[in-house]
Task: structure prediction
Amino acid sequence: MTKLEELKTLLKELKDYSTACTLLSWDLHTETPKYGIDTVVSSLTALSTKSFELSVSERAEKIIYALNEPDEYDQLDDVYKKTVRKLKKDFDESKRIPVDFYSSFVENRAKAESVWREAKITNNFALFAPYLEKNINNTIQLYKYMRPEAEPYAAMLDDYEKGMDEASIDRIFNELKTDLIPLVKAILSKPEPDASKFKGDFDINKQKELSHFLLEYIGFDFERGCIAESEHPFTSGTCRNDVRITNHYHKDDLLSAIFSIIHEGGHGLFMQGTDEIYDNTPFSDCGYMGLHESQSRIWENILGRNINFWKPIYHKLQEMFPEYKNISLEEFYIEINHIKNGFVRTESDEVTYCFHIILRYELEKELMSGRLSVNDLPAAWNAKMKEYLGIEPETDTLGVLQDTHWSGGMFGYFPSYLLGSIYDGMLLDKMNEELGDIDTILAEGRAKEITAWLKEKVHRYGGFREPKEVLMAVCGKEVTAEPLIRYFKEKYTKLYNL
Amino acid sequence: MTKLEELKTLLKELKDYSTACTLLSWDLHTETPKYGIDTVVSSLTALSTKSFELSVSERAEKIIYALNEPDEYDQLDDVYKKTVRKLKKDFDESKRIPVDFYSSFVENRAKAESVWREAKITNNFALFAPYLEKNINNTIQLYKYMRPEAEPYAAMLDDYEKGMDEASIDRIFNELKTDLIPLVKAILSKPEPDASKFKGDFDINKQKELSHFLLEYIGFDFERGCIAESEHPFTSGTCRNDVRITNHYHKDDLLSAIFSIIHEGGHGLFMQGTDEIYDNTPFSDCGYMGLHESQSRIWENILGRNINFWKPIYHKLQEMFPEYKNISLEEFYIEINHIKNGFVRTESDEVTYCFHIILRYELEKELMSGRLSVNDLPAAWNAKMKEYLGIEPETDTLGVLQDTHWSGGMFGYFPSYLLGSIYDGMLLDKMNEELGDIDTILAEGRAKEITAWLKEKVHRYGGFREPKEVLMAVCGKEVTAEPLIRYFKEKYTKLYNL
Result:
């Protein structure tokens, strides 16, 4: 067997483990009965451990190092060149983490997550504070082990969205702030739309049927994927031919299921659209959170909240849900773009969402640098909410305790959500240029042409190209918030008669 | 670590593999999209192989042999005594199979299954014949390796239903034949009930709701189990706290979903009812097919086709399905006990079902002994159909090719289905004696009391007691078909005015 064949065998073995782990985890969220959870978690833990052991085994080390030698390396194609570079980097980083430290890191993180849940329910930040502090210190230490030469928070940002460093993010987010703070103020000074018509009693089976329809409408292939139900919607999958999407359904709220499924559908299309040359490599699914999020958020917001998206299919909604017979398309359009200064990120509209992220990013940086102490975090959170959205949460449950990320040690993750939207502004410009007027395409029911364009420009590369490379290749320029800001201004100036 | 602790660690590791394999297989039947199948099968194959390798590893050998030594063995409790005996037997048998032979066995079997599917669709027995012949020879050879001292077919029977040997089965099946041949003739000479009212357009979501209701009604615990949809209904599960049941739904046939879910529910109750002392041992789920089948068939037939079962809940059916408003409970009762001499085992009623099994068992014996050649099998099949049910299939698709078992090398499996019903006759007698009149219990909506009795008498032991032991302990006598025959005669004499 050649070294490359040995590598492919190893990757196949790792893939077989990851397939099982993906499906066990999927089952845990969609199907496992209450008292069966321990058994499934035990199996998942055992297989994850075996997979990790294989990835840092002597056998793996030999193969990866052999293929990094010039005589072997130079013979590889681009995909496998990048694969062995990435494997070597990951291998070296893992090897540098002391086993004891890693165990205590994982243990504290698990504990922090469960304490956070308790603290959120009981509105008790003080309970969570010591665990958060430990999580911060541990995560910094972890990165010091893995990448001794890098500044820790910079390394974290790089892990979630390669190439988007603090300086770039600061520049882009500042562009946004300058323009959006007055825009949001202007919008909020206008009369609020009446949302009362949108409450109803929406049959869950019909909501499932609609979810299926919407996924198919944007080009999701049900011979290579499926939908199930879970508390929080998510997308996973074993490979590009087996993409798993979940949705949640509330009897009194149809819009939640609609925009969740369109959002997850965007992730799903990305996964289904990746080229087969990346199968079983680290690039078969894109690991850059911002780029992935750009694909979900472009469907959820820029396309899905465009009135033209609904023109060819709004009658379907009205047929399925009698409540909608009394709601015109225009009223629907106003409600799905209803700007509100709420406390909760996951319930916010596409404009105020930006501030929810900027706030978290700014606080994270302060926490990581030690300039802000954990004890001062709630006050700092509330002050920023006041500054950006003019409101202050009455409880930490609705404030600093609302998200799970920090309890799970995910620092540097938040900015990627907003970077996704910023990429979307750039992609929208380019689509209009290359495909023709997007409003017309949507109005004519040709949504799948947009999917095809995104596949050609973004999806097919999976995680092979870094976000900056993708944007440069597609749009021919550095990442900038200008198109997103322009999109917001044009859309909401009309909608709210500013 | 003591040897027993080592064993428990080993069993836990094997359990973690089997959990994953169970869920991957469940996913393949319920959820995996068409083009994702290869990826899931690859993972399932890899994990099954790893699990098998662990079970025959040197490490396993050392633990199992050490615990079989008197000084260790005598300290074990009954559950672990039997566990190490079983593990040693399985280990020794596996070790005696030459690896090359086993690979070619598995390969031919896989090929035979796919050729059988093709042969069934195209009604071409000649295509399947050589593979069947090879399957027969290979299976005999496999058993000669595993148990050189035993007669192969006897060993196969013993594997599917321990303790029920050819002599016992012959005796019991002959009792049945003597009485049932004239009974079926008498029934079929009567006018056939009119089934036309039972066709309709039955909403699939409502059928799902009804399936859920029926499972709950007989005592299935949804905090320790769930239902999904698959082409052919089946029951599996990772442990007693996570039992997975599937059902199928046909828009034009409600009865199929009803009796399939009650059947699978019986399997599910058995699994949920097993004592926790058997967790992670080979006895945590009963591996005796006849005993398992007795628990599904008692609910499907003896209880589920009793008019009293429906008295408290028939109104529910009528509320859910408007078609049933015009069908009285009595008409429903007649239809669910409609005796027909059809060709297909899986569509047959509880009485003619016996002949479908007896026929297969008699032919299997002849094939295994070499007294019947594969080429003469279709003619022999048709002759027995004529003898027992008075009809001959026009195609092999409806005859000898209908079942998958022989293509999968499962010889000796069929008798266990009928043994299940025979046990049920005995259990029914005992229930009437110990619990009081079963008709009354059912009519009063106390079905769960029967579940509790079955749990106490059968379920709790999982696979720890052999079928003969269970029946002896519960009923105090050897297995006999007399109670089943009596049940048939009493029930159908009334129903058909014989």
User: Anything to note?
Assistant: Chain B is about 65% helix and 5% strand. The first strand of chain B starts at residue 225 and ends at 229. Residues 3-30 of chain B form the longest helix (28 residues). The interface with chain A takes residues 12-13, 15-17, 19-20, 23-24, 27, 31-36, 38-40, 42-43, 46-47, 205, 222-226, 228, 237-239, 241-243 of chain B (CB under 8 Å).
